[in-house]
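The authors assume throughout that readers already know how a fold can be written as discrete tokens. A single example would do more here than another paragraph of explanation. An entry of this sort, consisting of the sequence and the corresponding backbone structure tokens, reads as follows:
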Amino acid sequence: AFRIISQNRGTTTSAFCLAHPKSYPRRSTLFSSLGKPSKNGHEILYSEEVTFALEAVRKACVITKKLQDKLNTITTLQKDDSSPVTVADFASQAVILQHLNEHFQNDLFLAEESSDNLTSHVSKQILNACESSKIKDEITLKSCIDLGKKFYRKDTGSHRVWCLDPIDGTKGFLRGEQYCVALALLEDGIPTIGILACPNLPFTDGSGSSSVGCIFVACKGKGCFQLDLEELSNRPPKRLDSSSAALRDPSTARFCVGVEQGFADPVGKCKEMAEHLHGRLADDGSGEILYAVRMDSQAKYGVVARGDAEFYVRLPKPEHRDWIWDVAPGVLVLEEAGGVVSDANGKPLDFSVGAKLTSNGILGARSRLQHEALLNAYQK
């Protein structure tokens, strides 16, 4: 069951949020899919699956951006695990799954939210948010949201699963900070497409200019790209490849970690690792990691993939097991950019065993040598 906890904007702001969106000009132009392919080596971005997936997440981002700008007007609920969920989460999931199901009816879907216990009042808010979509009534709305349960049907015979976190980093969303729409396609348990749409993360291409909003797109064995979120941008897709980049020594490597240390690092292990690698913690008395960027959501994987940080560490309580929608999109983005991701024991993550991983902890780095240093620090 849900419990209404707020209809107001959250007020807590992290001092470690990378490129706070309020520091950049807001864009009002709506987003849509990429145009026709050009002869620039980016053909993978125009496969049928990637094209429709990008259309879907861009539609969702139009909605989430509008709702984040008026948080005091939307309802926030509390789930049984005490985590927040908003009208934006439900609207994003409904729009994305409706679009994907329209084009890939034989595929399975696994998504975070469920329409169970949604009241008519909240459903009306979600419908209003989806007004530009094909979802026009409450029955259709709930049906689209619950496409995310199709994964649990055993009679389809499909080996393809789209897993979705409609708003990854809901707490960041509620603070007006970083969040992402995270989508992955798994085939026989292997992530083959990973998409992180980050409406508040600047697109950076090394030119010295930036704009708010980017998408990371990765295809298994074919690379990772950063796109501008806006359709009308003249920025070409940028291939992300750490193998051709100058890499930092682990002693100065930057950690990109979660805002809420109580979840991602409850026993302080990440800080111990950072102190081992850097030689010390920050000098300001905060006990903070010396070189650190903090933000919510899987956007962290994109930040590491493009070289704004080198280490990703997620070490929740030993009994915790991550849902695959919380991990698969970001892992493929970082791996296809030349990075390495493992569980806390250095083993590859296994997405073939069900809706949750069976291992605990995630260590990611921009290169194999950096990952070896990170793993060694963990094992100390």
User: Anything to note?
Assistant: The two ends are 43 Å apart (CA to CA). The longest strand covers residues 190-204. Residues 8-40 have pLDDT under 50 and may be disordered. The chain is about 25% helix and 20% strand.
